Amino acid sequence: MEGWPGYWEGLPPMHYATHCVSPCLAMVKGEADYVSCLGSGRIAEQLLAKYGSPFSFETAHCKIRNQDLAFEVTRYLFNAARQYIESFDVYGEKMSFEWQSVEGDDPVLHTGGEKVERVKVPDYAHLLPEPIRPFTTKGVYDADEHKHLSFVQGSGHGGSHPHLANEFIMSIIEGRPSFPDVHQSVNWTMVGICAHESAMRGGEIIPIPDFRS
């Protein structure tokens, strides 16, 4: 689930769902096949035209192409009594991971259905070139005057920005496709666009174009 009123003003909530979609598809190196989405609640009348969506929440279910897997994404704009947080959960047969629902808490790891523990997510700065390693654990903006949660969390979204930049630059240097490559990037972006279209059609299943064919 993710949301932040005002950050992407003028867009329906699902049009900026990549923070939720990309972890789900990146972990299995997959692409989305089709999506069905429902809207819930209603934003203020004066905001309807601006955001192109009447819904406070939009919740989508998405099938992963050529895999026996699916995922759910929920985004909200307004009329939600909930702390702003970007998160994802992963459920497996032997182990499951649940992101903390309150900022400052630790995520939860379930093992074998019996063992439950809160865990610290390690920093993987050691995988980066040494000059950019420090930027996973501190912000790039002044914490007092320009404080924003994503930067306080570590150079943007849990310290991921240096890893993303390094991967893109190394793909150019090494003459290979980046991860995500252009087809994955388009597919992951299309999930939110098609999900909003589905919500506006009452949950109709919307196929996601396969740009590889």
Describe this structure as you would to a colleague:
The chain has helices spanning 18-26, 48-51, 149-152, 160-173, 182-200; strands spanning 32-40, 57-64, 70-76, 90-91, 95-98, 108-111, 115-118, 206-207. The chain is α+β, with helices and mostly antiparallel strands and 213 residues long. It has a single domain (13-207), classed as Dihydrodipicolinate Reductase, domain 2 (2-Layer Sandwich), CATH 3.30.360.10. The strands form 2 sheets. It has a 4-stranded antiparallel sheet, with helices on one face. A hairpin with a 3-residue loop joins strand 4 (90-91) and strand 5. Helix 1 (18-26) packs across helix 5 (182-200). The longest helix has 19 residues, at 182-200.
Strand order of the largest sheet: 3-2-1-8
Q: Please give the domain count.
A: 1
Overall shape: globular
Q: Helix count?
A: 5
- Please identify, by name, the CATH architecture: 2-Layer Sandwich
CATH topology: Dihydrodipicolinate Reductase, domain 2
Per CATH, the superfamily is: Dihydrodipicolinate Reductase, domain 2
Head-to-tail CA distance between termini = 31 Å
Level-1 CATH class name: Alpha Beta
- Topology order in helix (H) and strand (E) letters: HEHEEEEEEHHHE
> Which residues sit in consecutive blocks of at least 5 with pLDDT less than 50?
1-8
Helix/strand structural class:
alpha+beta
- Mean pLDDT equals 84
Care to count the β-strands?
A: 8
Give a quick account of the main beta sheet: strands, pairing sense, barrel closure: 4 strands, antiparallel
What is the helix fraction of residues, given as a range? Answer: 10-25%
Beta strand %? 15-25%
Give me the Rg, rounded: 18 Å
